[in-house]
Amino acid sequence: MLVPVDFRRRLPDGAIVDHWTAADGWPLRRFDWPADSPTPRGSILFQGGRGDIFEKYLETFVHWHNRGWSITSFDWRGQGGSGRLSADPHVGHVADFATFIADFRDFWQGWTAAAAGPRVLMGHSMGGHLVLRALAEGAAHPDAAVLVAPMLGLGSPLGARGGGWLARIMARIGDPARAAWKTNERPISPSPRQVLLTHDEDRYDDEMWWKAQQPDLVTGPPSWQWLAQAFGSTTALAADPRLARLDIPLLMLVADADKLVDPRVARRVAARLPDCAIMGFGAESAHEILREADPVRDRAIAAIDAFLDDRAPA
């Protein structure tokens, strides 16, 4: 199912890259690719993870668009093409994850007013966490939702409690917007960044190509404040009683060998959700399931398609 590199490295015909303005005037870079059919299959809002850019998922967008879906995505505030909240343009910073939810709530309201149904919400990694938090807080109510390697717990050698404590201390004793570490997706990692994300070198190179063409899209490591917020938000969401009352069908894809987020927490959260199917992957998959080698990616895409055909029919 590998899409030719020349297509993965250019915007598809008919796609529009523009900006959406948040309530406080902040511009967020957005991607829209309307379905070609006058009677579209439906609409997907796909949200990436920390430091992501929507160009990384063009190959997957092509697949869904070919099935008749309209596709929308936007870069989260403070990363990608949506500006920075730190003085250092290579640090992903946010003072409060509630800012992400406020942006998303407003975007969702405007998007759903124009998007053809069924309306599906998807999120990868941090995007998966924020999607589920938005559902719990009533910021969105899609017909179905898909969470891909969701950041429902962080991978930390100190555990959630110890990692959160350290992040909060470090955010208080210095500039909270300074980088928590220098390189890679996690500190003191023995594995190269590519191995933490995907076993597929070609797909990893796609991301590097886009960032070489547009260096302003590069985010870099998180700030200490981002890290403190991530630990706090994931801990609070995992214990949120509203999860048990969600009436939205969900599919959760989990990479059990994930070194960036904690798949055990994701499975525990999935067990609390009243209508959540779960698909697990073993050592064959790193964090970016939708950008993995074909055997993993094909299985994931097929599961999503089957889920949407069953739970969000045209």
Automatic annotation (TrEMBL):
Native source organism of the sequence: Hephaestia caeni
Domain (Serine aminopeptidase S33): give its ranges.
39-294
Record InterPro entries: AB_hydrolase_fold, Hydrolase_4, MAG_DAG_Lipase
Q: Which domain of life is it from?
A: Bacteria
Q: Which PANTHER family match?
A: PHOSPHOLIPASE-RELATED (PTHR11614)
Q: Output this protein's name.
A: Lysophospholipase
